[in-house]
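thought: fold this chain, then report.
action: predict
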Amino acid sequence: MSSVRGLSMPAADPTRADTDEPRVTLCRAVTGDRRLYDWAASTQRRRGEVLVEVWGSRADTPVAVWALLGARPVRWYGPDLDAMAAGVAVEELELTYDRLEWRFPKPER
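observation:
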């Protein structure tokens, strides 16, 4: 992915009437690779785990990893297609999820 928008963890307050599930949007350049689209189309009704990893300049260990638990795709967006515009065609996948865990680095104790 080239960008991730909307990583959030709602306050754990059972008195709030806010029942909206958090949403995150994954973005990447369109290539000949259909895996993101195909995965979204095949898993719309199932929930699973999606990892968001941030890698630094050394590609041996991620800098941070978040897990989206109970994640499922809610919308795939195709690119805006305009032959007169400069830029990269981008696809986006919007996910909803039940819970967010920050897995790496581990908290210091």
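thought: worth noting. The first strand starts at residue 3 and ends at 5.
final: tokens above.
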